[in-house]
Specification:
heterodimer; A: 77 residues; mainly alpha; 47% helix; B: 132 residues; alpha+beta; 4-stranded mixed beta sheet; 4 helices
Chain lengths: 77, 132
């Protein structure tokens, strides 16, 4: 197999593709343009991630009880 | 194969901070800090009242006064005011709908139950009061 072929293969390596998707996917946005005279209302049911909320609850209650000296704050990206 | 595994492990390390405390507070306003400070100062008093069986942890994330004693009532009222403020802050700062306040209360109640010491009164999700 020749060198360029090998290089092309390494670019399409599954692990690299996975990394690329993980980096790109969160940044993807969809923009739609509709009729301003006919607004579209979408009622979406938000499901709270219980595990995430438990982390937050533990964080706050550990701080309140004195188990932790500092409260963890979410950094805004 | 080894490289893929290494990459996945690396990705997990990067992703971990994204999932830890996803509903943490973003901004601690003076009001929120006052509520947190009040709870910290009151903590040992509440623990004493819990050990005496005068108050317990309710399933809605609030403290409950069993005895009706004035000293317990004042502490419980102040504690619940601070807790409600913090729950509301978690809700609004994470842009969650108002209906999810019940989920927040339920999860905080579960955390309180897990942190309760043996002998303290806790209310289960079904509403039953038990001594831990």
């Amino acid at each position: 197999m020749n060198e360029p072929g090998l290089k092309r293969m390494s670019f399409l390596h599954p692990s690299l593709l996975l990394l690329f998707l993980c980096l790109v996917a969160p940044g993807c946005t969809v923009k739609t343009v509709g009729d301003p005279a006919r607004p579209i209302t979408i009622k979406a049911h938000v499901i709270v991630d219980i595990r995430g909320m438990k982390e937050t609850a533990s964080n706050i209650e550990d701080y309140v009880s004195g188990e932790k000296e500092e409260l963890r704050i979410k950094n805004e990206e | 194969m080894k490289q893929i595994l290494l990459l996945l492990v690396l990705l997990l390390f990067v992703a971990q901070p994204l999932f830890a405390g996803q509903y943490d507070l973003q901004t601690v306003t003076p009001e929120i800090q006052q509520a947190l400070d009040g709870r910290r100062e009151r903590f040992s008093v509440l623990e004493q009242l819990k050990d005496e069986g005068k108050i317990g942890e309710g399933r809605d994330g609030l403290a409950v006064n069993f005895a009706g004693a004035p000293e317990a009532e004042a502490a419980v009222r102040a504690e619940n005011k601070d807790r409600n403020l913090i729950y509301q802050a978690v809700l609004t700062q994470n842009h969650l709908p108002e209906t999810e306040i019940h989920t927040i209360r339920r999860v905080f109640a579960e955390t309180q139950r897990s942190k309760a010491k043996a002998g303290q009164m806790i209310q289960t999700e079904s509403g039953t009061w038990i001594k831990k």
